[in-house]
């Protein structure tokens, strides 16, 4: 059915102005009328004229993001899952993405240009660094934004959503220590990213509390791919004193680590224990590994959806006053963790 604003208004017995205001979140339209309009939109497949909508509301109906592109930067399955959640919520509110590729060194300028273009109503920032100059830049712009993550050596006086990475790896390390493990390796994300810094911090805290020392020779930082996970685990197993347990920052890295452990003729959960962080990637479920993996779990897709909801709320479509959120992770114990093997 080809329905324009005039026909939709006639079907509902409302003025075009009322229908337009209902669709664009104006507070003077009561909830019952708004729901009638939204129901009719779903049933008819009506899509508003973007140019007219922008003139009426002063809003573009778009969320902006900057995507780093450069030689040597691989595509990231984790970011793709996050975008899926962001997209699902955006579609519910008839919002679009404006994706602006940028060389890493030009990101601040790209954000400024995107904000000034008038093509987006809000911005979000990911891949947060320890001291991140992009935060101050975003705060200087007159446009809503939400950060996925937190800086470390800067005030957290900005809207964010993050998970408790320190707590997640603290609890995971404590479990391994309770099982008798003393040499625990870490396969982590890139060292300049704050989630990786906090995960190491959580592990070190648990070790310190139990009189154990973090061994830098059993630590690895890299992009989170299965190949890097494989190489790191292979190197650890070649150590004169190999670890009896390993923590991985992603199920993707764990996939490579499992491959290296299997090729070495070792059994996960008996010869070596493994815990990984599970971002709830639909194509890589930890319970489906040959030996189901113990995990700390928090959904990236849910985080993307929540950030989209908050961004949209900040430009007046819904109401949401929450500025900062720190999500706890869930520790799920499966067969990949067992008692430390007896010393040979």
UniProtKB/TrEMBL annotation:
Keywords attached to this entry: DNA-binding, Transcription, Transcription regulation
Record InterPro entries: HTH_LacI, LacI/GalR-like_sensor, Lambda_DNA-bd_dom_sf, Peripla_BP_I
Domain HTH lacI-type: 3-57
Pfam family, one: LacI
Name under which the protein is recorded: LacI family transcriptional regulator
Organism: Pararhizobium capsulatum DSM 1112
